[in-house]
Write a structure and sequence with these properties.
- This is BioF2-like acetyltransferase domain-containing protein.
- It comes from Paenibacillus riograndensis SBR5.
- InterPro entries: Acyl_CoA_acyltransferase.
- The chain is of the alpha+beta class.
- The protein has 2 domains: 214 residues, no CATH class; 151 residues, 3-Layer(aba) Sandwich (Aminopeptidase), CATH 3.40.630.
- Strand 4, helix 4 and strand 5 form a beta-alpha-beta unit.
- Helix 2 runs antiparallel to helix 3.
- The longest helix is centred in the C-terminal third of the chain and has 25 residues.
- The protein starts with a strand and ends with a helix.
Length: 380
């Protein structure tokens, strides 16, 4: 493996030497597919250019964007901080507050578009809600930023999915480098269910499987015939119930996950019918499930979400890994032992326009002073 930093795209991917490690094999399966096909082949609402930056032999995916304001938030900071936030206002259950923030968001949206806010290069972007980090050292990560500043002048360099609890050493290095910190969301982390109440709740959730006659199908029992149903179950929850701005996985994405094990997919089946599904991946002692869904047309007292969550918690426990539970359903997750944390994005915007730099600074200030305190107060 060559030391230094190198950039590969679709045309030069065949020259990339993938490391023969667990991470290297995973990266080869995933990144190669994203280089070979357009991103929308796998995620319908993602339009971006995927490349691979290799630092000291370690491959890391990056995405390059210019505008694309209708993109899923996994590629569009505008969607994350404006479009998605506008949808979330209804959760406040306060008409006055909703109206005030709606005006703020409309004004901020106009400012961000004028500032070319989406002209970004995102590092370690797997096009997922949570981008777990590979075994990259702080020095290596800074070398990547140096390289990208040279290769993409005028672009903001962005790193999502950082928190003090999961990536403390990287945060310190990025802070020393001069990155701005912009809060992104409240996440929940579970080492293992602690306390009698949490253990009892998980046990009760798990008991629903037998009560309602569901079996847990491991990856080897999920087949090609299940793919359309998996897409449907995910969309019922994350697209139709939550937001169209979540990544819209296609059948090609699920097929890649099944064939190459880029996700470990488990399902809840009854009488031959798949009614719930989860898919997780793990990295450096942590795991997260970007694929999660169930048949929302079935009666809520059935408890499919509770069953699926219990299966995921049990999988994390059996693997001895930290469970990154992403955001949302905060009270449910806290009751089962998860601890809240603030997730941040590191932003390096030196070399961009004055208006763009001001936009990122204002956004960071607004979220630190208003956004995150409000989320924590409402326990979202």
């Amino acid at each position: 493996m060559k030391d230094g930093v190198y950039l590969y795209d679709r045309d030069s991917a065949r020259e990339l030497q993938w490391p023969d490690t667990e991470y290297g094999r995973y990266a080869r399966q995933y990144i190669s597919a994203m280089l070979e096909h357009p991103a929308e082949h796998f995620i319908a609402n993602v339009h971006t250019t995927v490349k691979a930056v290799v630092v000291d032999g370690l491959p890391i995916p990056i995405t390059v964007n210019e505008n694309e304001y209708a993109n899923s938030y996994v590629c569009s900071p505008y969607t994350h901080y404006v479009s998605y936030a506008q949808e979330e206002l209804a959760l406040l259950n306060n008409r006055l507050l909703e109206g005030t923030l709606a005006v703020v968001l409309r004004g901020m949206g106009l400012l961000l578009r004028t500032a070319r806010f989406n002209k970004v290069v995102q590092v370690n972007n797997w096009l997922l809600s949570t981008n777990l980090y590979p075994p990259v050292s702080p020095d290596q990560l800074l070398k990547v930023i140096d390289f990208l500043r040279s290769e993409f002048p005028g672009y903001t360099v962005l790193l999502r999915s950082l928190s003090k609890e999961t990536s403390g050493a990287l945060l310190e290095a990025l802070d020393g480098y001069g990155c701005k910190w912009v809060p992104s969301r409240q996440i929940y982390l579970l080492q293992h269910p602690a306390g009698s109440k949490a253990k009892w709740l998980v046990k009760r959730d798990r008991a629903l499987l037998d009560k309602h006659g569901y079996t847990v199908d491991p990856p080897g029992q999920i087949t090609e015939e299940d793919i359309p149903r998996i897409v449907e179950l995910y969309e019922l929850l994350y697209i139709h119930k939550y937001s169209k701005h979540n990544p819209q996985f296609t059948e090609a994405y699920i097929r890649l996950a099944l064939e190459k094990r880029t996700l470990y997919i488990y399902g809840l089946r009854k009488n031959g019918r798949l009614d719930a599904v989860l898919g997780f991946y793990s990295r450096e002692g942590a795991m997260t499930a970007p694929l999660f869904g169930y048949d929302t047309s079935l009666p809520q007292p059935l408890g499919l979400y509770r069953m699926l969550s219990a299966v995921l918690i049990d999988l994390a426990g059996s693997r001895g890994e930290l469970l990154h539970e992403s955001s949302g359903v905060g009270q449910f997750k806290r009751n089962r032992g998860a601890v809240g944390a603030t997730e941040l994005s590191a932003v390096f915007d030196q070399g961009t326009s004055w208006l763009n730099r001001c936009s990122w600074s204002f956004l960071g200030w607004l979220l630190r002073r208003v956004g995150i305190p409000l989320i924590q107060k409402l326990k979202l």
